[in-house]
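hey m, so remember when u said the tokens were messed up on ur end? i reran from scratch. heres the input so u can diff it against urs
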Amino acid sequence: MINTLHKTFIFITVLIVFFVLCLIFYIFFYKTNHESFITKPKLFIYWEQGWENAPYICKMCLKSWEKYNKSNWNIIKLDRYSIENYIDITKKVPNFWNIQSIPHRSDTLRINLLKEYENSVWVDATTFCTRPLNDWITKYDSFFAFSNPSNDRMIANWFLYSKQSNYIIDKLCEVFNAYWIDKVKPEKYFIFHYMFNELYNSDSKFKKQWDTVDHISANIPHKMKFKERHQEHVPEERKQHIITLQSPMYKLDHTEKSSNLMKKSKNNVFYFLAHHHGLI
């Protein structure tokens, strides 16, 4: 009888200890991480084919965002299989996976994510971060994009920020989603940008919001997209631009040539950029 009671006591004690440990795990791991995901701003970065298959230069770009922002932002690495964990994109755009090109699927995804999540950023996988977002982006209280990448485009969309629900994001998302209802291919490659232009010229509320944004020219982060960037030489002007942090990020490209230069050659602008920021 005593032996049976002793075994029962041990069994109950083990159950209590197990329950307590589960509770501790929930409080300090799951609950903490869940609350962190809800409260921390989000940075979305996308490589549709999977990050294990991403070009070397894109992986370095991802590392740059993690280095400067991981403590204050949720860095969310997306691919075609993880999208559904964050948004039901086919509910928003039923034709989404029929859109023929990855860039246009990406355009559709980014505007819907920014509408879905307040205080969020979209960065293209070829965008290299050089300083923490919190150093500069927090002064924008609604929307930010780099301006005038060319004469026919008012904004660049490889970096977009939405602080809170705002008219530009809401309207652009509405119009862009409607565009893809029955299309698989756009009439023009830069359809996202041209829709922005059209809304600016036709919608006074849209125009007013964009006009109040403190604009930063896209020419600044485009500084590394110069014609001779694949040469075995780093122009002094580009070196100083990198060293003196004249841009909070740089837009690069994911060509095999650019990736190989960053990875294998020490005398080029891609390697210099990554090395200066301690990633190589």
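this time it looks ok to me. The two ends are 69 Å apart (CA to CA). if urs says something different then somethings off w ur setup not the seq
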